[in-house]
Every structure is written in C-alpha cells, then in structure tokens.
C-alpha cells in the first residue's frame, strides 16, 4: 500500500529571502528562473519530510507493535517545471 503526498510551494521567493545567506540563495536570486527556484525549494522540502519520516515513523509503528517494511522515495515530476535534469 502507498501514501502519496503532493507538494506545491506557493511562496518560493519569500522562502529564499527568509533563508538568505548561503551560496544557493545568491545563485537562486541571480541565475535561476522562477520554475527552477520552485523546483529546488520543493525538492529540499521533500527531502526534509522524508528524513523526518525515516526517523519518526518506525518509532511510532514500533510503539504500536507494528512490524513493517518502509520505503521512501521522491517521485520527480520535473516535466511540470520545464527544466532539464
């Protein structure tokens, strides 16, 4: 059985402004198109969600005495961003 979560960030520029300071934000402001910025932000958020789930979900399932195998993946639907990867 699978659970699918779709993420569409609506405030990409605000997030990049709020998290300024790194090399990425400099290049994001100068070089990347809006669709590429959105892709990078959404990808990072998806990775953070998966990292959190990898730690927390097995613990919670174990507390409920559930034995399971969990696989996590990011399904990259980059066609919607009109960029080449």
Q: Give the beta-strand count.
A: 0
Main beta sheet strand tally, sense and closure: none
Quick check: average pLDDT? 79
Unreliably modeled segments: 81-85
Layout of helices and strands, plus pairs?
Layout lengths: L11 H7 L4 H8 L3 H30 L22
Helix pairs in contact: 1-3
Q: In a nutshell, what does this entry contain?
A:
The protein has helices at 12-18, 23-30, 34-63. The protein is an all-alpha fold and 85 residues long.
Describe the model.
The two termini are 29 Å apart. This protein has one domain. With 85 residues, the protein is an all-alpha fold. The chain is elongated. α1 crosses α3. The protein contains 3 helices and no strands.
Q: What would the keywords be for this entry?
A:
85 residues, mainly alpha, 3 helices, 53% helix, elongated, disordered C terminus
């Amino acid at each position: 059985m699978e659970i699918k979560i779709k993420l569409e960030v609506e405030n990409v520029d605000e997030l990049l402004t709020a998290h300024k300071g790194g090399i990425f934000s400099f290049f994001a402001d100068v070089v990347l198109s809006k669709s590429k910025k959105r892709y990078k932000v959404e990808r990072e958020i998806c990775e953070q969600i998966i990292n959190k789930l990898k730690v927390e979900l097995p613990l919670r399932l174990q507390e409920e005495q559930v034995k399971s195998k969990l696989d996590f993946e990011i399904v990259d639907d980059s066609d919607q961003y009109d960029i080449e990867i």
